[in-house]
Structures are given as structure tokens and as C-alpha cells.
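# nightly structure sweep
# worker-07 picked up a monomer target from the shared queue
# config: single-sequence mode, recycle default, output format = C-alpha cells
# input follows
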Amino acid sequence: MAQKFNLELKILGEKLEAAQNELNKRDKSNMGLQHQQEQVQSQLQRKEEQYEKVKRELMEEKEGLQTRLDEIRDKYQHLSNEYMEKKMEFEKQIALLTQQQEFMAKKH
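# output follows
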């Protein structure tokens, strides 16, 4: 009976040791996975920060370009208006000169 008890005790001890070894392996694996997860989260955070920085820079650049575009449009509109005014002025002068020429031609 003592031998049977000692044998069962030995078997249970071996099972316990095997379970402990398996638990230790899983703990190591879990720690490794946690470390990997932390690294990935850290990389993700850095990438998100880079993304936000680039996004912010592009938005600032876009605003600057939009302002420049608006200024150029305003300048174009001003020049276009000025051109039309001068064109009308020249057309009036041409018409007046033409009338004067016709009048002078009729006079002589």
C-alpha cells in the first residue's frame, strides 16, 4: 500500500511538474506576445502622430495655396475689368477719330 501511495504521489508530482513547465512556457509566450503588442501599439501611435503632423502641414499648405489662388483670381478680375475699360475707351476713340475723318473728308 505504501508503494502504491508512493507511486501515485510520484505520478502526481510528475504531472504537477509537467503542468508547471507548461504554465511557465505559456507565461513566457504570453509575455512575448504582450511585448510585441506594446511594440505594435507604440509603432501605431508614432504612425498616427506622423499622419496627424503631415495632415496638419498639408492643410496649412492648402490654406496658403487657396489664399494665393484667391489673390490671383482677384488680380485677374481687376486686370480683366481694366482691360475691358481700356478696350471700350479705345473703341470710343477709334469711333470718334473715324467720325472726324469722315467729317473732314466731307468738308473738303
